[in-house]
Amino acid sequence: MATVQAVLRNKKNSHDKYPIAIRITKNRRSSFIYTGQYIEKKLWDKVKCKVKRSHPNSAHLNQLILTRVSEVNSKLLESEISKEYKSVQTIKDNIQNKNRHDFYSVAELYLANLRNRKQFHRYDNEKSRIERFLEFTKHQELPFNSITVNLLRRFETHLLHKKGLAFRTVMNYIIPIRTIYNLAIAESIADRNNYPFGRGKYQIKFPDSEKVGLNVEEVQLLENAVGLTEAQQHALNVWLLSFYFAGIRITDIIQLRWSDFSDYRLHYRMSKNDKRVSLRIPIKAKLILNIYRESSNDSEEFVFKELRNTDFNNAKQVRTRIKTTTRNFNRHLKRIAKNVGIDKNLSMHIARHTFGNISGDKIPIQMLHKLYRHSSITTTISYQANFMNDEQDEALDKVVNF
């Protein structure tokens, strides 16, 4: 008789979190079905085989685990009664419905993992890209050995010339194809020898993108802007706070609570990479915060109104509200830029570029790495290279100014 148990696998990801899996054991052989969920090791109850209550989403995660264990047990019972499946691997294959070994089936698994991890924005984008690829191939089934360099290049040409997409956007369509192919290889569904990506085959390359930030004079124009509507002033306040706090992202700034401010510092956890950030509150930021503080006495309340009364157990609702808020802010910011005479495309994300542009060569790269909280200093160097021009400007002057 096979046994089923929820476990935390000892293979952490880049964020130091560990995957929750369902272990199937038969005849002392085990196989694992992954739930797509990751947590910190300290939040796993090894005795009860469940997520500890101290995890903010423990109820939902434990319900997911219970559902998966129930599904696996149901399939196992069918297997034991029919005696059709003998090995633990064939039982796993039956549970995961791996009778189809084509791109379609693995793509469904890939999208399901994104949905289970509540990465709804990425799920929507990847789903539409995968559907366009499948529409292009016009096949009911697509074996992995049919995904060739020639097919990928024809798909690229189709997107560039028939659909009129930019080259960078086209690469974003190719990436999920490569990801799904890698997943198929990891699951022993696809043959690595047929892999169409890499040197000498199809290479995914992104063109250099230009990051544009405001300069000091343009920020001062925003700081001194007058005659704004209430909604415009609110959007500008959020933008300025983002800039004052080293380019904090819109997703993070509108989730700030008053409890995140203490001892004259801002303490928050970045949603993109889950890293803790602690920044001193600049005087300019304090003046703006005081405006909002006057209307709130609850330390757990959000600083800004946009996400109040949001169900944070509903990730899709949270994502939709953040997306709507960002769109509204950007619309107001564009009008403000036009009114004060800024001809750059002002948006919430430009606040981060503006911090990079003004910091330029003034701040050591190691300090910028701390402020940005990039996972790697290489990322910081690559990012800041867009704004560090002093040395090359001086080198140019030495040659032409004679």
Automatic annotation (TrEMBL):
<dbReference type="Pfam" id="PF00589">
    <property type="entry name" value="Phage_integrase"/>
</dbReference>
<keyword id="KW-0238">DNA-binding</keyword>
<dbReference type="InterPro" id="IPR050090">
    <property type="entry name" value="Tyrosine_recombinase_XerCD"/>
</dbReference>
<dbReference type="InterPro" id="IPR010998">
    <property type="entry name" value="Integrase_recombinase_N"/>
</dbReference>
<dbReference type="InterPro" id="IPR035386">
    <property type="entry name" value="Arm-DNA-bind_5"/>
</dbReference>
<dbReference type="InterPro" id="IPR025269">
    <property type="entry name" value="SAM-like_dom"/>
</dbReference>
<dbReference type="InterPro" id="IPR013762">
    <property type="entry name" value="Integrase-like_cat_sf"/>
</dbReference>
<dbReference type="Pfam" id="PF13102">
    <property type="entry name" value="Phage_int_SAM_5"/>
</dbReference>
<dbReference type="GO" id="GO:0006310">
    <property type="term" value="P:DNA recombination"/>
</dbReference>
<dbReference type="GO" id="GO:0003677">
    <property type="term" value="F:DNA binding"/>
</dbReference>
<dbReference type="Pfam" id="PF17293">
    <property type="entry name" value="Arm-DNA-bind_5"/>
</dbReference>
<protein>
    <submittedName>
        <fullName>Recombinase</fullName>
    </submittedName>
</protein>
<feature type="domain" description="Tyr recombinase">
    <location>
        <begin position="209"/>
        <end position="397"/>
    </location>
</feature>
<comment type="similarity">
    <text>Belongs to the 'phage' integrase family.</text>
</comment>
<dbReference type="InterPro" id="IPR011010">
    <property type="entry name" value="DNA_brk_join_enz"/>
</dbReference>
<dbReference type="GO" id="GO:0015074">
    <property type="term" value="P:DNA integration"/>
</dbReference>
<dbReference type="InterPro" id="IPR002104">
    <property type="entry name" value="Integrase_catalytic"/>
</dbReference>
<keyword id="KW-0233">DNA recombination</keyword>
